[in-house]
Amino acid sequence: MMRKWLMIGWLCSMLGALGACDFIASKELRPGESTVDDVRRLMGGPDTIREFADGSKRYEYPRGPAGSQTWMVNIDASGRYQSMYDALAEANLARVRPGMSRDAVRELLGRPAESGRMAGFEGLVMTWRVQTGPGLTEMFHVEFDAREQVVRVDRSADPDTINLR
Question: How do residues 28-52 score in pLDDT, each as one tens digit?
Answer without folding.
Answer: 899 999 999 999 999 999 999 999 9
